[in-house]
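pinging the channel bc i need a second pair of eyes. not urgent but kinda urgent?? the chain im working w is below, pasted from the shared doc
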Amino acid sequence: MSENNESNFFALMSRMKYINRWGLMKNAFPENIEGHSLQVAMISHALAVIKNEFFDGEVDAEKIALYAMYHDANEILTGDLPTPVKYYNPDIRDAYKKVEDISKEKLILMLPEKLREYYREIFFFENKGKECYYIVKAADRISAYIKCIEELKVGNMEFKEAAEAVRKSIEKMEYPEVAYFMEKFIPGFELTLDRSLT
C-alpha cells in the first residue's frame, strides 16, 4: 500500500462488534469481540498494576492494556473459533495458530508502511515476553469466567460446565495477581446492582 492510498484498517477494526463469541452456546445475551476486548484490556491493566504494586512486578501496564485491546482483532477475518474446537488436538491448535498469524499479517499490511512495525508489535505481543502474554491470557480467561457468571445469574445453565472449566483453568495459572483479582473483584459480579452499590 502506498502512502497516498486509503487504508481500510480501522474500518475493519470497527467490525469487531459484529463478531460474536460463544457461538456453540445458547446465550441469554450476545457478547462480541469488541466488548470482550475492552473488558480484557481493563482486566489486563488491573492485573499488571496489581503485579507491580503488590508483587514486586515491573511490567508496563499501559502497554499490556494496548496489547489486550487488539488480542482478538484478527477474528474480524477468521471469526471466533470455539475453544473446544480450537484446542481439540495439537494439529488443529497449530493449524489455527498459522491461520491467526496470516490474518494478523493481512491486517497489518493494510496500514501505511510507516505504521506497520508499530502495529506488528501489538498484534504479535506474545513475542514481547512471557509476562505480557500470560497477563493478557489470564485476563482473557477471567473475562470468559465473568461471562459465565453473568449468564448463570439469569438462569442460563448452558454455562454451568463452562464456568467450572474456566475457573479451574484460572486456578491452574498460580499467579498471585490473578488470585488477588479473583478474590477481591470477582465476587462483585455475583451481586445484584442494588447490593453492589451498598
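so DSSP finds eleven helices and no strands in the chain. and The longest helix spans residues 130-153. — does that match what u expected or am i reading it wrong
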